[in-house]
TrEMBL record:
Name the record gives this protein: Mitochondrial import inner membrane translocase subunit
Self-association state and partner proteins as the record states: Heterohexamer; composed of 3 copies of TIM8 and 3 copies of TIM13, named soluble 70 kDa complex. Associates with the TIM22 complex, whose core is composed of TIM22.
GO biological process, one term: protein transport
Function comment: Mitochondrial intermembrane chaperone that participates in the import and insertion of some multi-pass transmembrane proteins into the mitochondrial inner membrane. Also required for the transfer of beta-barrel precursors from the TOM complex to the sorting and assembly machinery (SAM complex) of the outer membrane. Acts as a chaperone-like protein that protects the hydrophobic precursors from aggregation and guide them through the mitochondrial intermembrane space.
Residues of the Tim10-like domain: 21-81
Keywords: Chaperone, Disulfide bond, Membrane, Metal-binding, Mitochondrion, Mitochondrion inner membrane, Protein transport, Translocation, Transport, Zinc
Molecular function as annotated in GO: metal ion binding
Membrane-related topology note: Peripheral membrane protein
Chief subcellular location: mitochondrion
UniProt cross-references to InterPro entries, sorted A to Z: Tim10-like, Tim10-like_dom_sf
TM region(s), chain numbering: none
Length: 84
């Protein structure tokens, strides 16, 4: 198995460990981007007149909007994993 040198440091990690770290970082970045996208889309859809507070109707809309995005993501993830 190969190793990955971190430069001038004597520390070496295996290719598998490196790939695991990269996959974890990519997953974190994906989650952050997904949440930002959902927040932006739901805000644009539900907050028609931004003010100093969020109304009950706007809050409910945002909650439903985010729930739909999360459910859609679960469905797509299940379908993707089932096809593998």
């Amino acid at each position: 198995m190969g190793s990955f040198s971190t430069g001038s440091s004597e520390t070496q990690i295996s290719t598998k460990e490196f790939m695991e770290q990269m996959n974890f970082q990519l997953a974190q970045a994906y989650v952050e981007k997904f949440l930002q996208t959902v927040r932006d889309k739901c805000f644009d859809k539900c907050i028609t007149k931004p003010g100093s507070s969020v109304s009950g109707t706007e809050s409910s809309c945002i909650s439903r909007c985010m729930d739909r995005y999360f459910e859609a993501t679960r469905i797509v993830s299940r379908a993707f994993n089932a096809s593998r």
